[in-house]
Automatic annotation (TrEMBL):
The keyword Transferase applies. It comes from Nitrosopumilus oxyclinae. Transmembrane segments: none annotated. This is O-methyltransferase. Keywords: Methyltransferase, S-adenosyl-L-methionine, Transferase. The keyword Transferase applies. It holds the Pfam family Methyltransf_3. One of its GO terms (biological process) is methylation. One of its GO terms (molecular function) is O-methyltransferase activity. InterPro entries: Cation-dep_OMT (IPR050362), SAM-dependent_MTases_sf (IPR029063), SAM_O-MeTrfase (IPR002935). Signal peptide: none annotated.
Amino acid sequence: MKESIQIVLNELETQSNLEKSRKVDVTAEDRMLAITKETGEMLNMILRLNNVKNMLEIGTSTGYSTIWCAEAISENLGEIITIEQNPNKIKRAKENFEKAKLSDGISIKEGLAIEILSELNTQKKYQGFFDFVLIDADKENIVQYFDLIFPMVSINGIIVTDNMLYPEKYREDMKKFSNYLKTNPRLRTVTSPIGNGEEITIKIK
């Protein structure tokens, strides 16, 4: 891994750990709420194993998960489209991408995920376009996000959804989401205990 990328990942891991330990005072809307390092490593490996080029991320935050993914995708000259509503987080993410020297392969779309996904969904270019999707956003709209995303995923494309097991307050809703996925004959899905719990879903023919 390039030194510039490792430095930024280390900085963001330190910040995330401080937030989780409550050793720093951060407003609720500005918390990183990042994936764990173990999840980042898993995502990076999945992307490499599948030679992913085109990725969609719902929930940029300050860019920690995006950087883990971009480190792998950049070797395939691929691109990430990532969605974030919070302007302050977008500013911080852009700074982190610059420091990691990964800005060229990352495109940030600012706004409500539902609206942006609905717009992308209507464009012919994006039908079956994304090889990989990471969903790490609000849980209230998780089913709507998935339904909008699914037509834009390529056959054998992968969708990973974070927070299936933690925080525990979301666990019941995320279990219902997993059960909802299992009713779809066009996919295979499994819940992994890695990190905060990851739903790993593959689109099949």
